Each structure stands twice: as C-alpha cells, then as structure tokens.
Amino acid sequence: MEKAVKVALFAAVAVLLASGMVLADTTGWYVGASAGRSTVDIGIIPKEPTNIGYKLYGGYRFGPLALEGGYVNFGDTSDDFLFLPLDIQVDGLGIFGILNLPLGPIDLFGKVGRFSWDYKMVSALGVVSGEGTDSSFGIGGAIRVGPVGVRAEAEVFNVEPIEKIVFFTVGVTYSF
Which terminus of the chain has fewer Cβ atoms in its 10 Å neighbourhood, N or C? Predict the structure, then answer.
C-alpha cells in the first residue's frame, strides 16, 4: 500500500506541474521587493561583516527570458579594522538578463548583469568613497500563485575596491 501512495502522490504532483506549465503566463511586466543578508568581502578584514539590505526591482519577461533592472542597498555594515570602527555603505543600480526554467508554478533562474555602485567607508582614519560599474550574477527560485510570487535569490556583486558582496534575499513579486 505504501508504494501505491507514493505512485499516487507522484502522479498528482506531475499533473499539477504539467497544468501549471500550460496555464502559466510567462510574458509581461513585473515588480518586486526583497530583503536579506549581505556579506561584504574586503580582503584586508579577516572577518566578513554582514548586514540586512533590500532591493526594489522590475522587469519584463518574455517566455523563458527576462530583462530586469533595480535598486540595491546592502545596508550599513559595521566592523572593526585595526581596532578602529569601520562603517561601510554600498548601494547602486543594476540591469540583468535572466534565463528562467519554468516548472509549473515554480521557476528556477540564473541571472547575469552589470551593477553601477557607490560606496563609502568611514573610519577614524577618514572617509574613502568611490563609484564604478562591475559585473554581477546570481541564481534563484520563485513560486507563483496567480500574479503573486515569492522569490529567493543568491547574488554576487563585484565592487572593485571591496572584493565582492554576497546577497541572499527573499521577496515578493507581482506580475501584471
């Protein structure tokens, strides 16, 4: 009987996924907001400081491809460097190409793009700031129910003076 339950469960999941693939609207505009943990990797600091950041984004999806742009704020990250407090602030605008793998109401995706950033590091020794544009990439997944989705991502942002920022987020999207 246990085998019959497994077969029935598998068949039910297969039908749901297949019907979701047929019914899924994969073309159109969307907006979203996400928040999560950012980890700043600065080569000269032995411990990687973390903080809570957020992002606001929107895009257009056409089939399995999407073009997305948005604002990212990694939060104010504080740590000690040479026994002195160090405050790091990074934010910027990004544009990404996204490749989606729709599996019914679930999407898996990869993204690659460019990130135009501003940063400021403040310590007792002074202020260092700058701006630039570097590459970024990420992977994620989303669950869609009608026009609303829940999305989780892991992204890496290359920021020249700060080796990289890793950003894990969870958010909500709305498609129209």
Answer: N
